[in-house]
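Summary for the steering committee. One of the milestones for this cycle was to obtain a three-dimensional model of the protein with NAP bound, which we needed before selecting residues for the alanine scan. The sequence and ligand used are listed below.
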Amino acid sequence: MAKIKRLLILGGTGEAANLAELAVDQFAGRLDVIYSLAGRVKPVRDLKASVRIGGFGGGPGLADFIKNEGIDFLIDATHPFAAIISANAFDACQATQTPRLTLARPPWNLPPGAKLLEADDIGEAVQLLSGFAKRVLVTTGQSSLDVLADFPDIHFVVRVIEEPAGPLAGDNITLITGRPPYRLDDELALMEEHDIDALLAKQSGGEGTVAKITAAIRNRIAIVLLRRPLPEPGEAVDTVSEALLWLESRV
Ligand code: NAP
């Protein structure tokens, strides 16, 4: 009987979870699917795949996991901004000669009329905003927000998925929580409630969080998008079905 192969999916995105579910069904009896989460936020849903939670201990730790668990292939389906784990996956797969595929959703393509600005980090983004914005919706996550305190003339409405462990620095911050997917009506209502005149977000792409972009375009307010980090070299696809095809030829 042919050996059952083992797939490690680095997850934390809706696409990764969808891929895990579909791979379990499509390759039943031929493939074990292990789904890995960092453990920053509570898992969104139960999966049929085996789920493991927590860091590996850098690239070498991930390489050890691959060897010890007999992993045959790795699909890096982490968020496009999760650059450290992707670099670790690159290194670990090089070290262990493990085939690796990146699944990354395409970036949003904003229409020509959108008031779009781009920045490499939050500091640069807020500098851009400081010329005109007074009330900014920030959806870039919990890290690197200290810089907001340096711009007391702007009020920032910061949306995170889960309450941070400690308070965010600065009197000019209102913290709100929310979990994607978001609906357009709700995003429009949120922007109206907080009198938002600009949006600061990551160029994440994907359906789950695009409603804020659509709402900002409708309201004709400025959108500052953080540029994506450069992806790791190697084979890459941008849909779950393409990732399943990649697997089909290997399982
Ligand atoms: P990161 O900065 O690239 O990674 C930091 C560390 O977290 C890694 O070195 C690794 O620890 C651990 N890690 C990250 N993803 C992991 C995974 N899927 N399984 C096991 N360990 C993981 O990551 P991040 O930007 O903090 O993102 C963390 C997770 O949230 C990712 O799974 C990502 O897909 C998801 N996410 C991120 C964003 C975002 O904007 N960055 C948005 C939505 C979802 P060790 O070095 O100890 O292995």
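Key point for the committee: The longest strand covers residues 31-37.
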